[in-house]
Hints:
Blueprint: E1 2-6, H1 11-18, E2 25-29, H2 39-48, E3 53-56, H3 70-91, E4 95-100, H4 123-137, E5 142-147, E6 150-151, H5 158-168, E7 171-175, E8 179-180, E9 183-184, H6 185-200, E10 207-210, E11 217-218, H7 219-230, E12 235-239, H8 259-265, H9 272-284
Parallel strand pairs: 1-2, 1-3, 3-4, 4-5, 5-10, 6-9, 7-12
Antiparallel strand pairs: 8-11
Helix pairs in contact: 1-6, 2-3, 3-4, 5-7, 7-9
The protein binds NADP nicotinamide-adenine-dinucleotide phosphate.
Amino acid sequence: MKCLVFGTTGQLGIELAQRSPAGVELVALGRDVADLTDPAAIADAIARTDADVIMNAAAYTAVDRAESDEATAMAVNGAAPTAMARAAAARGLPFLHVSTDYVFDGTGSAPWPVDAPTGPLGAYGRSKLAGEQGIAAAGGQYAILRTSWVFSAHGNNFVKTMLRLGTERETLTIVGDQVGGPTAAADIADALYTMAAAFHRGTGRSGVYHFSGAPDVSWADFAREIFRQAGLAPAVTDIGTADYPTPARRPGNSRLDCRETQAVFGISRPDWRISLQAVLAELKA
Ligand SMILES: NC(=O)c1ccc[n+]([C@@H]2O[C@H](COP(=O)([O-])OP(=O)(O)OC[C@H]3O[C@@H](n4cnc5c(N)ncnc54)[C@H](OP(=O)(O)O)[C@@H]3O)[C@@H](O)[C@H]2O)c1
């Protein structure tokens, strides 16, 4: 199976490159050859590929910056994946895309089912939802994998921020009223390869799927586990979202109901605490 992947430098793009299973050939395109603000370049790459499956690991992920730059977020997260899906559909190729818990408004405390009403609180969530809608309307085979709280040894993420702050400070205040599933980029990469293989052999089913690490925790409890595993001991105090103002509003409830992903693809929620051990070991090495 040959996979064409958009995105080489992000958390997920790096893990897709590092974890391609035996029998999978990967062709990964970076911004230099496929800039996501240029839909024609994307369509051209897909029109010329001899790949069996198309995946998108690239996105505009700067949640706060998107509030003042929604046009770019919309181009990269909305128009680009739509162009990918249309070009893939024209070639009869399955398209796998990654989306986010930020398409939900974060109310309540129940895990969001895949068909729950969306209601993004900010520009990033709106742009990712636009991408989802464009892909679904493109008319081809597709899977949209919504995930949350992504971490890895690469790029900027909560784990790396906590490791830095944990060595710099003795006390930290961290948001305790946002709850979700931390998810290792490595686990998302593995899930995408499993889904790609299913589509390749004809057992995939188009739709929206959820995938996040278990158990669900608050950011404060995620931080406590990072510090425990890293042997750091800053005192962590929970604060409310209201006490930590950011340009973009964030959902309080980011729990994702992942049962459909298990039922259709046999992919279960990974224990993020185990994936965190691997990331900390990678950072140490
Ligand atoms: N990070 C999270 O916590 C989180 C949570 C939920 C869902 N997600 C979703 O998970 C997926 C993977 O996220 P990630 O954390 O791996 O993202 P990331 O580390 O921020 O990487 C983003 C990637 O997109 C590329 N990119 C951005 N703008 C581009 C453009 N105009 N043209 C070409 N490439 C461009 C970047 O390339 P450059 O290096 O060239 O900029 C980079 O490779 C995304 O769909 C994201 O929305 C992420």
